[in-house]
Amino acid sequence: MTAGDAMVFVVDDDYSIRRSLKRLLESAGFNVETFSSADDFLSYRRRDVRSCLVLDVRMPGFGGLALQRRLADAGSEVPVIFITAYAEEEVEARARRAGARAFLTKPLDDEVILRAVREALGMNQEVAR
How do residues 43-74 score in pLDDT, each as one tens digit? Predict the structure, then answer.
């Protein structure tokens, strides 16, 4: 599988984070769609492609943990990588218990996020729903 065969969804309410992640991931060859909220992501018609989700923990409306739970309840197996400005052990533990592949603290290191995305996509053997 090449990076171009996969889709990375980025959900973060911070425009500068979305823009910088989009640029970084596209420069590594990934297809990227960005969303400013969990609601926007849920209303997007996703194609049946191998994918992963880079998701902010805290956002207006409902946050990343709630979106992760909603996707799991719907039967989605898309791997989730959490990003946050707040390193809270309890939140990280909840995210990991629910299946998060990684939990990264902002500011993000380019190589760390790229490695996490590659690993998440490698773990996703089935086509994401």
Answer: 998 777 889 999 999 999 889 999 999 999 99
**Which amino acid is residue 117, in one-letter code?**
V
pTM over 0.85: yes
Query: What is the Cα 125 distance to its own chain's centre?
Result: 17
Reduced to 3 states (helix: H, G, I; strand: E, B; else coil), residue 82 is strand
Q: Which CATH superfamily is domain 3-123 in?
A: Response regulator (3.40.50.2300)
In sequence order, what DSSP letters do the residues of 2-71 get, joined into one string? -GGGEEEEEE-S-HHHHHHHHHHHHHTT-EEEEESSHHHHHHS---SSEEEEEEES--SSS-HHHHHHHH
